[in-house]
Design brief:
Number of helices of chain A: 15
Strand content of chain A: 15-25%
Largest interface: A-B, 67 and 68 residues
Oligomer: homodimer
Chain lengths: 663, 663
């Protein structure tokens, strides 16, 4: 409320509303990666008929330089501007608007001249406006302005004066000097967190190092795992994600298949972190040493792979913290420590931190030190286990603190939980998030969910990472659909999502035996025992995976999500969607048979406009999976897909047949 | 961002998002009238599995008492509560949430008991929780809590303890004492402006007192106009709105049909305010005295009519302000004063205030005094002329200042301008607004526009007042459609809008001659000359108007807008919509023939659910216009409307045929 007498100027007439993007009234930043742009829109208007001007200001937080650019009207009092984000870190943007006195005067002058009115007083008014501006102009501009004023007040003929008045250079020069005290600034500066490109485009491979031993039954090491890196890289992945590599608790250790009592040689769950051998900054002795871990990172990097570590903020009962910081855990009235539970389920091998501890402050600081420890070893990506069971304010603080030290660090939220909670975690700073993709199988479900993720405000802060399976989740579709189901889910993950991941080698070998009917747990889950696998099995999907990852790398359209568009099919077992670069030089159409059992055929209905295709001319689609080529024409074209031999098309659109070299 | 060491408690785990209603991030208040409720929703959730509780607090601004009530979950982490607004004035509301420790404990306990687990430690934990609460409880509750704690720690048998633990009274009592320092409050308290009922439900009649003389050619007075009040009241109106009643400028006075030079006996435009005879707080001598004006108000009130004055903040060149406060106007370089223009159009009889004057502060204060002057004479409603040509911040301040003195005052914004501007004026405090209804004629236009006004967030702050004509606007539809067009537009205005108005007697007498082809101005417009009319013309719509206004008063469904629902018709010349009270005891279906020339028939497709009608049973609809009765069954029913004899149905639904007395 503006009240005379207060520090507000009642003459500030421009109002600014509805600035977008804006998350929760500016409470949260939007997310971008380096090289992307931020398109900002706002309603900017004033009372009366005066013209308004507005500009977009933006700056990198902690940088001194504030850049600005004019916004342009897009109709109905809405204005638009866009700026690029060229560096990793935090940016801010702001919208400002004011009455454009000179443009108003000039526009009215033209109307008066066209109506044949006497404008000699109007020219004097213009001289007044320009004279006022000259006072605050640079010497050079001031000289230009004074010249214009002289001409407008001169005895010269009216036509010469009008020429002077309508000079476009003069207009532009005067427009550079709005009256600052009458400029309206939108209530809030809004934020952008800019990550490196991997935040948007990444292919993850989850591997348990302890299962990488060359001979069966032996506990694998980090160096054994390093020997697998060539294989992982050959499939085209760029992130290798390791479950926790820390010492595993002895007390209440789980046995195979999650049994309550472990046998002496049971390896235990890597997520039951901590024992007499150390905690969250130690490495499981059977995996190796810190030096070997650093060697592993170096080797991975040599293959173009980054290493992602698991961040599971919970302890085994024999974790050193439990003795050293009893106050960080909840003690029960019988003196025992509270283990994890979700009544009536009990997880005796895990004790959670008590984030309501009176000593929460020290706990936060310690956990930050854990992250920074691994950052110091060269880790730049963390997959955060169950973030939704720790306070939001903790994560918001932690992520900002870590990025303050190193803005290249990325965090993937493993929050398989309710939608509001997942989105909140993304808003407070997680770089990527697991999704419901894991359970979205039919055409309608996939269409609805991916439209929500890519075509609504959600896309401003939530970056999906699509996983068809995880060590915790073997979805029913994979259990029942066999190898063709794995193919379907893989193609969907790798093309619907700019980022995706698989839990290997269980995935590429199509392991699909559940613990029991109705369960999503694996039988003989790798979470509780060592595995030894034949990676050269003829069943393996490794060639399909390698080919698909190459297609992803060669086609920038597949490296974004905002550009996703669904197209119609007459058969609900076939799903069709496209991705295209903004300039339409790279356009990919994907069609997937969602039925792992039967061949399915359908006419598809393409939105040709979004593909940059001329409805009147034939065009070629080149299947990057099979190398087949098809001549299509118009919106409706026929497709037939077979579960075994041709489960999907990944089609590159070639608009000019016979002129392929252009592409 | 929460940082350890700052004044924020990291243990505050609940988050609150997306509180609705909320206009522009809480920058503006929503609007309500006395007796309405405010339904508040919010996303409230926490990390982990704990149960959360949340409450809605509300209070009248300046009252001490803060009331609160619990919010209830409606699914997907969304919570809802509602509160009534029982007094005129400003209210605030707030959402708070916290972890409900006792309910979490109790819920888990039940699961444990059901799973047959040993719960003796859990009972001790409950005792701990309750013991902590006892410290901050009233004596009475503390005694209850201590008793419960003793039982939970007693040597009694487990079943007796469990009974104590699960006692519902205990649960409710403990829930009254959340840990205040762990309560999350939504970032903003949100506002409500509560008006009296007339802000929502009103029927306006615009009359020029100077046209009310008993004999032709004579300048009518306020007392002449008072003699018309019985006629106006007999048609069922409740607001009589007078164009400006102030002295009219002599300089540059406009003649008949807006001609540049007035003849000596030309009356001038009432909107060219001010002359040597006085300004905005004076009364035109030919209309009467201030005493007579007050007498006019008293008489109007006697007929159940309120008087609305015009607030036109602009001056004739000979307005006293122009001499006394030259600084409030813009002086041109040639020493003349700037008159109103919208280049190339010129309005020489009007000089606008310069709201960019260095003396803006004094100008604001003076204009406030003008409003308060008329408030002191008993005026409680103002129709504000062209508010969109004065700064938004001025109106926001003015309206709040006036309502501070008298919250019963209402302001109608006459802003026929761009949508963002109209909505902004509503947000900053105008009680009602003119609309685009005046130009929305076909079924699609009407449906789209009224869905926007009544079914989106717009309804929280924008109250439409529908005018089929004004002295400035004779729409083409009325010009070409003759009397049936007036009937159509009247029925639409009076039933689509809880508030509507007509410019009489031009409207009820169906005056429809434009100044020239393509113009929306009246020929021989009443703005520039006196009128004398035969109110008893057989053409008059007065009986239809009287009947319709009676229907509006007798049927509460027609007194709101939120309840508007459109129903399908097979013929785009027929529009069908309904309004119903929330309890469905009063349900009105309106069907209007939009074609003033031809009979039109159609099947209509009713959404029976919104009407509270059982699809399987016949129901009666009673036409309140014609008194006809029809037996209908199911969703599809047939209707035929004739421009002259049966242009519309206003049907009251009678669900139980033969049991009418119940309604």
């Amino acid at each position: 409320m503006r009240v005379p007498g207060e520090q507000v100027d009642g003459r500030r007439r421009v109002v600014i509303e509805n600035v977008r993007p804006q998350i929760d009234c500016g409470r949260f930043s939007i997310q971008r990666v380096v090289g992307e742009t931020v398109v900002v829109e706002a309603d900017v208007f004033a009372d009366g008929h005066d013209q308004v001007a507005c500009q977009l200001l933006y700056w990198r937080v902690n940088d001194k330089e504030v850049l600005s650019l004019p916004m342009a009207p897009v109709g109905n009092d809405r204005w638009r501007g866009e700026f690029p984000v060229l560096q990793v870190g935090r940016y801010k943007y702001r919208v400002e608007g004011w009455i454009d006195r000179i443009a108003t005067w000039r526009g009215d002058l033209i109307k008066r001249i066209d109506a044949g009115q006497d404008v000699h007083v109007e020219l004097l008014i213009g001289a007044q406006i320009i004279e006022e501006v000259a006072v605050r102009a640079t010497n050079e501009d001031a000289e230009l302005f004074r010249r214009a004023v002289r001409r407008l007040r001169d005895k010269e003929g009216p036509e010469s004066k009008q020429d002077a008045a309508l000079d476009l250079e003069l207009l532009k020069a005067v427009q550079r000097y709005p009256e600052r005290h009458l400029v309206t600034r939108y209530e809030k500066d809004l934020g952008v967190v800019v990550d490196r490109e991997k935040a948007r485009f990444s292919a993850w491979y989850e591997v348990f190092p302890r299962s990488c031993a060359a001979e069966p039954g032996k506990h694998g090491t980090l160096l054994d795992c390093a020997a697998h890196l060539r294989y992982i890289a050959s499939m085209g992945f760029d992130v290798v994600y390791l479950p926790p590599i820390h010492p595993i608790g002895q007390n209440f250790r789980k046995g195979k298949n999650n049994s309550i009592s472990a046998k002496p040689d049971d390896a235990g769950s890597p997520w039951a972190i901590g024992s007499a051998e150390g905690g969250h900054t130690s490495i499981h002795p059977q995996l190796g040493t810190l030096e070997e871990f650093k060697e592993f990172i170096r080797k991975a990097n040599g293959y173009g792979l980054e290493v992602a570590l698991d961040l599971a903020f919970q302890c085994a009962p024999d974790h050193p913290y439990v003795k050293q910081h009893r106050e960080w855990f909840r003690t029960r009235p019988d003196g025992t420590i509270q283990y994890a539970e979700n009544p009536p389920k009990l997880y005796q091998d895990i004790v959670p931190f008590d984030f309501e501890s009176a000593d929460w402050h020290a706990l936060w600081m310690e956990l930050k030190e854990v992250v920074l420890f691994w950052v110091n070893q060269g880790v730049r990506i963390f997959r955060v286990d169950n973030p939704h069971t720790k306070p939001f304010s903790f994560w918001e603080w932690l992520i900002q603190e870590v990025k303050e030290k190193d803005p290249d660090v990325l965090f993937l939220a493993e929050a398989f939980t309710r939608p509001r909670v997942m989105y909140r975690l993304a808003k407070i700073g997680f770089s990527q998030s697991y999704t419901y993709f894991t359970w979205r199988n039919n055409k309608q479900e996939l269409t609805d969910y991916f439209n929500e993720l890519t075509q609504t405000e959600v896309r401003e802060y939530f970056r999906p990472n699509l996983w068809p399976n995880t060590p915790d989740i073997l979805p029913e579709f994979l259990q029942s659909g066999g190898r063709p189901a794995f193919v379907t889910r893989f193609i969907l993950a790798a093309t619907l999502g700019a980022s995706y991941g698989i839990y290997g080698a269980a995935f590429e070998l199509c392991e699909n035996t559940p613990f029991q009917a109705g369960s999503e747990e694996y039988l003989n889950s790798e979470k509780y025992e060592l595995k030894h696998r034949d990676l050269d099995s003829p069943w393996s999907l490794k060639d399909l995976i390698a080919r698909t990852n190459r297609i992803r790398k060669e086609n920038p359209a597949l490296q974004s999500n905002r550009n996703l568009r669904f197209h119609g099919t007459d058969n609900s077992s076939l799903i069709c969607y496209s991705k295209a670069t903004p300039d339409l030089t790279n356009v990919i159409i994907v069609i997937v048979n969602l039925d792992p059992r039967q061949p399915q055929a359908s006419w598809i209905d393409l939105d040709l406009n979004s593909l940059g295709v001329d409805a009147a001319r034939a065009f070629e689609v080149h299947d990057l999976l099979s190398d087949g080529r098809y001549q299509w024409r118009g919106a409706r074209n026929y497709v037939e897909l077979l579960p075994e031999s041709r489960p999907a098309h990944i089609l590159r659109v070639r608009r000019e047949i016979g002129a392929e070299n252009r592409f």
